[in-house]
Amino acid sequence: MSYTKRSCISGVFLLFLAVACEANSGFIGVKDSHFELNGSPFLFNGFNSYWLMHVAADPTERYKVSEVLKDASVAGLSVCRTWAFSDGGDRALQISPGVYHERVFQGLDFVIAEAKKYGVRLILSFVNQWNDFGGKAQYVWWARNAGAQISNDDEFYTHPTLKKYLKNHIEKVVTRLNSITKVAYKDDPTIMAWELTNEPRDQADYSGKTVNVSLNSKMASFVKSLDNKHLLEVGMEGFYGDSIPQRKSVNPGYQVGTDFISNHLINEIDFATIHAYTDQWVSGQSDEAQLVWMEKWITSHWEDARNILKKPLVLAEFGKSSRGQGSRDIFMSSVYRNVYNLAKEGGTMAGSLVWQLMAHGMENYDDGYCIVLAQNPSTTQIISDQAHVMTALAHSFN
């Protein structure tokens, strides 16, 4: 490649970075059931990459984080959801209650710094429902080791020792001073929102009341007492509970101890989320039947977000496994079309986050939903097209 061509490409990339940096100025807020950025409506297409901090904890692997954030940004993706937890185990952030691994925290510092560089906003989750990266089971194990009498993992939501552990972790993350940017997390607009828990479930109380009182209400107030600049969401999958019994028919045949309506009506919760995995939740049905269910799932929650909650709605996880039946591209195109059509009705349907983007050479992380943008041109085009039409739609609302 000639020097002239290299200079030209370098200049374009620097301009791209300048635009991306400008896009990251200002905190995202909520007004009249939609997101706003600097006084203008904010709609987006985005992605999940839960592994960013875990990989960035090893400085020799940080190029993978940079690759994904850069490629996503070039494709127009503007929001990424990722973990701000790793409790016990391999590359633990929280080694034991209140004890943190500085090198892993510096990995999260790097993730935030790189996201800012490429104009990508972050949704950071505080703790996991599941055992991956520790989760509530690790918190229970710690508490039992300290002498607490705990009968099951669902006491995570009610036991004072466990709530204390979680509050300590939340405070540690929210008040962290980034070692690279020298900006406290609570003051950094690169972070779009905090998430209380990844997919909270309580098998001991299917009504959703325990999660509502113990997790959402009290923890939400605690987060806002530390940081009132950032948005806050629960991390819910969207299962309906007891507050509107007839809505339970929308569930995929079961409940999980949460209530989409009551869990999101709490004042401190700024927007609603749903997740959707048709190949797991309504498995055994045809592709067409799964898409029909998916559209009903999204539309029902949009109606409730707009009419009852009066808060923005984000499809925060969805995907189609490459190991299952049917076409991923057809599935994603259908979902994106549904999201866009609902977003046109005023912006309450605010965006979606596909599960999940990976970098080259991460085959051992692949759960069947992995997408490497550079290796999947047709899927990348669909993802990028959605990003651009959502951005154009936001501009049309001005």
UniProtKB/TrEMBL annotation:
Keyword Nucleotide-binding (UniProt): no
UniProt-listed InterPro entries: GH (IPR017853), Glyco_hydro_5 (IPR001547), MAN-like (IPR045053)
Segment forming the signal sequence: 1-23
MF terms in GO: mannan endo-1,4-beta-mannosidase activity
Organism: Solanum pinnatisectum
Entries under Gene3D superfamilies matching the protein: Glycosidases
Catalysis performed (reactions): Random hydrolysis of (1->4)-beta-D-mannosidic linkages in mannans, galactomannans and glucomannans
EC number, as in UniProt: 3.2.1.78
Pfam family, one: GH5_mannosidase
Domain Glycoside hydrolase family: 26-356
Name recorded for this polypeptide: mannan endo-1,4-beta-mannosidase
Any one of the GO CC terms: extracellular region
Keywords: Glycosidase, Hydrolase, Secreted, Signal
Lineage: Eukaryota, Viridiplantae, Streptophyta, Embryophyta, Tracheophyta
GO BP, one annotated term: polysaccharide catabolic process
SUPFAM superfamilies attached to this UniProt entry: (Trans)glycosidases (SSF51445)
Keyword Iron-sulfur: no
Family the entry assigns: Belongs to the glycosyl hydrolase 5 (cellulase A) family.
PROSITE patterns, sorted: PROKAR_LIPOPROTEIN
Compartments reported by the entry: Secreted
